[in-house]
Specification:
This protein is of the alpha+beta class and 122 residues long. It is 33% helix and 42% strand. It starts with a helix and ends with a helix.
Length: 122
């Protein structure tokens, strides 16, 4: 997969998440080789991951890309993610995504999850 294809795939996935189109987002994830790691969870099953994202989706207000870079099958995004917890709060996050065979196989996301953990008790 070319750099351009990997970037377009990950951008399309993030666009689907931003629109809360979780069915479309699921279509970008690998069915058999998937791994997600962040301060709020680890998932090896794309369906379970999307179910969790759907659960917290209502707090997502907007997501803006500050910077992105691609090197082969690896795509990095720096994002501003605005959520509504008690008030609107914008968090900076970094996401490293790996693509194989036209699907997302790995995502590692780094952000300050302290408010999320207080809200959901995780």
């Amino acid at each position: 997969m070319s750099d351009t294809d990997a970037l377009a795939l990950v951008d399309a996935y993030l666009g689907a998440i931003a629109k809360r189109d979780f069915d479309a987002a699921r279509g970008y994830l690998s069915d058999t080789d998937f791994r997600y790691v962040s301060p709020i969870g680890k998932y090896d099953d794309a369906d379970v991951f999307i179910s969790n994202i759907e659960r917290i989706g209502p707090i997502l207000v907007k997501m803006e890309t500050r910077f992105r870079s691609v090197q082969g099958s690896r795509v990095a995004h720096f994002l501003d993610v605005t959520v509504s917890i008690a008030e609107y709060v914008t968090y900076r996050s970094a996401q490293l995504t790996e693509v194989a065979n036209g699907r997302i196989t790995r995502m590692e996301v780094i952000f300050d999850a302290s408010d999320y953990q207080r809200m959901f008790g995780e």
